[in-house]
Write a structure and sequence with these properties.
By secondary structure, this protein is an alpha/beta fold. It is about 30% helix and about 20% strand. The protein starts with a helix and ends with a helix. The structure holds acetamide.
Length: about 650
């Protein structure tokens, strides 16, 4: 009786017009198998049941309860019971499978919900944790509310789920160097990523713009290296700071802070991979220890976003200042030994990342030290010099009991024998390393660089490349012809040159982070863009409840400028998702759905100044309006 009354009330009060029990089942990442089985149950009437021998799961039950309590106002009772005791009322049961279930592995789970409650079973606590995350996604979106959500029936639909990940390495890289993010902000990020079953946070802790981890034996690294002149705007275009300009921007994690972050992450089944990026990207370290470059006389300061690396259209990039450690200087290895001793002791994860990317060669080329090193070690070129450095670093890292991973440049000149490779310049480096029997993590910029713009440059903060959600969803970590056993998994990277705060960080990560999560967790054969878009839209509602920002770029028009056969500008309009209508104007006014609807390639009127475009769905505006100058479209089309 009670249930019918509640459902009728929901029919009246929910504006969507259907009761909560009909709210869509939309799990991200998509489970391996999911069957809807009919009636579910009301969570408000349940208690949490743990069997006596699974008492250790109470930490996961507490996390579940904390989420429930925020939104429902009351925590569920946790009962630790003898095995096989019949439940009198619906219970949420977390239970470790005795004897194991090989199909589920370390992180898989089964979830069964019915009128009797929910049973989540797994071989290991990590699986229970992921089952718990799925259960939260089965609950109405109000479960994401940060404060009491009233007028909600906490209905869990009846489902039968078997689920386990495709890859064991499901990572997000967070660059806390270019912009600093606090301990609390990193913890919030861990909460968000673990909801989508990511299990690895790669912290890019050092770069030209800041050294962000306390090294107790080398305090100058953070006293000097963590602080720079404060600049806001378009990173990479800033004016040169004056020598006496105050260095007020920055911060770093003390080792005590980092221990707290690590403990927080462990409770969410997230490993932390620390990256110390050497020998390039080392200006912050050189600001503290200038003698460690090949140009020791320079007045080094931590870079504040003024350009110093030049990328000519062809040829090797070069620096206007030397930001690399000197591989011929023994003091460099002494410093790195101290750094990696402390990093290895602090971070429990089995890998340490040594960076290794984008080392400019122009100062190395001129260095007498390096010439002498090449002669002494019989190194025939600068690739072999870099490889000499990488191999020395690998020895240091393995002497601390850790495995080394680095960006794919560490392949150049010969890879260290036990090193793993993180492939970022496409899949090529990863393919080569896997074929040589090395472990590989795929994070190609072409699919997984979440710092790239996700929509039109007219509306997004400027970054040098674009990566739309739809492309991200096509990320396939195992290249043709490669033995999958060498591909540990993949990750998306979030470089923060142009990300100044957590709101914009969230905007850059979601929803592309959904797509990467799905490509790393769900079976390849199940990938389905239209279905993913539907589930993404359901999760937008959940992010709204959680107060987490996301990019609505998938609703925006896509404008493609091209040169027609007469050399004149022609414009194609399209959309990333199905079912949108596009309207446009060339008369400078803001178009709505009474304006011309786009059907075929446009040629702008002779003296038009601007194109303005908007998208609608079902008669309602849905995308953001784009305004682009015709002269900019001509530039995009390569018309002078
Ligand atoms: C990189 O993006 N430089 C690894």
């Amino acid at each position: 009786m009670k249930r019918i009354a509640v459902s009728l009330m929901m029919l009246v009060f929910t504006h969507s017009g259907f009761c909560q029990s009909e709210s869509p089942v939309a799990i991200i990442p998509q489970p391996v198998s999911l069957e809807k089985t009919g009636a579910g149950f009301h969570l408000n009437e349940a208690y949490i049941r743990l069997f006596k021998e699974d008492k250790d799961l109470s930490a996961i039950a507490e996390q579940f309860n904390n989420r429930i309590k925020k939104a429902m106002g009351v925590a569920l009772e946790i009962n630790i019971v003898e095995e096989k005791r019949a439940a009198k009322i619906p219970a949420v049961t977390f239970s470790i499978i005795k004897g194991g279930n090989t199909k589920l592995g370390k992180e898989g789970y089964t979830l069964k919900s019915s009128t009797a409650g929910v049973v989540i079973e797994a071989n290991e606590p990590a699986g229970i944790y992921y089952g718990m995350q799925t259960l939260l996604q089965l609950l109405p979106k109000q479960i994401e509310a940060k404060s009491l959500a009233s007028a909600t029936t906490w209905e869990v639909p009846g489902v039968l789920i078997t689920d386990y990940p495709r890859f064991g390495w499901r990572g997000l890289m967070f660059d806390v160097s270019r912009h600093f993010f606090t301990k609390g902000e990193v913890m919030d990020f861990i909460d968000q990523m673990s909801k989508y079953k990511y299990n690895l946070l790669h912290l890019h802790l050092t770069d030209d713009q800041g050294w962000r981890i306390e090294i107790k034996s080398l305090p100058k690294l953070t006293e000097v290296g963590a602080w720079r002149v404060d600049k806001t705007g378009t990173f990479g275009t800033f004016s040169e700071p004056a020598a006496d300009e105050p260095k007020t921007y920055g911060g770093f994690f003390t080792q005590a802070d980092m221990k707290e972050i690590i403990t927080y992450a462990q409770a969410r089944y997230v490993n932390i991979l620390p990256e110390i990026d050497v020998p390039g990207h080392s200006m912050a370290a050189l600001a503290a220890y200038p003698d460690l470059s090949t140009t020791p006389g320079q007045p080094y300061t931590v870079n504040a976003g003024n350009r110093f690396m030049i990328w000519p259209p062809s040829g090797h990039f070069y620096g206007t200042i030397d930001n690399a450690l000197n591989p011929a200087n023994e003091k460099v290895y002494e410093l790195l030994d101290k750094v990696f001793t402390e990093v290895a002791a602090l971070f429990p994860f089995e890998y340490i990342h040594m960076g290794g990317d984008e080392t400019a060669r122009n100062f190395w080329e001129k260095s007498d030290d390096i010439k002498a090193l090449m002669k002494r070690e019989n190194l025939k070129d600068l690739n072999e010099v870099q490889s000499y450095f990488v191999k020395r670093v690998e020895k240091i890292i393995s002497s601390k009991g850790k495995k080394m991973i680095g960006w794919d440049e560490i392949l150049e000149g010969g890879l260290a024998p036990n090193a793993a490779v993180m492939s970022w310049r496409g899949m090529k480096g990863g393919t080569e390393a896997a074929k040589a029997g090395h472990e590989v993590v795929m994070s190609p910029s072409t699919f997984a660089y979440l710092d790239y713009m996700q929509g039109d440059a007219a509306i997004e903060p400027p970054v040098y490349a674009t990566l739309r959600l739809r492309t991200t969803y096509q990320f396939e970590p195992v290249p043709e012809g490669v033995d999958p056993k060498f591909i540990k998994g993949g990750q998306a990277n979030i470089w923060t040159e142009q990300i100044y705060n957590t709101r914009h960080l969230q905007y850059m990560v979601w929803p592309r982070g959904f797509a990467i999560a799905e490509s790393l967790w769900s079976p390849k054969e199940q990938r389905n863009w239209d279905d993913f878009v539907k589930r993404t839209e359901v999760h937008f509602q959940r992010l709204n409840m959680a107060g987490v920002k996301y990019a609505p770029s998938l609703y925006d028009p896509i404008v493609t400028a091209k040169k027609d056969s007469n050399g004149k500008l022609a414009i194609d309009l399209s959309t990333e998702i199905e079912g949108l209508d596009i309207y446009y104007s060339f008369d400078n006014s803001s178009p709505d759905n009474f304006y011309p609807r786009y059907t075929t390639t446009l040629v702008p009127p002779k003296d038009a100044v601007k194109l303005r475009v908007i998208t609608y769905r079902g008669g309602q505006v849905i995308g953001r309006e784009l305004t682009i100058l015709i002269k900019d479209l001509q530039t995009r089309a390569g018309i002078k």
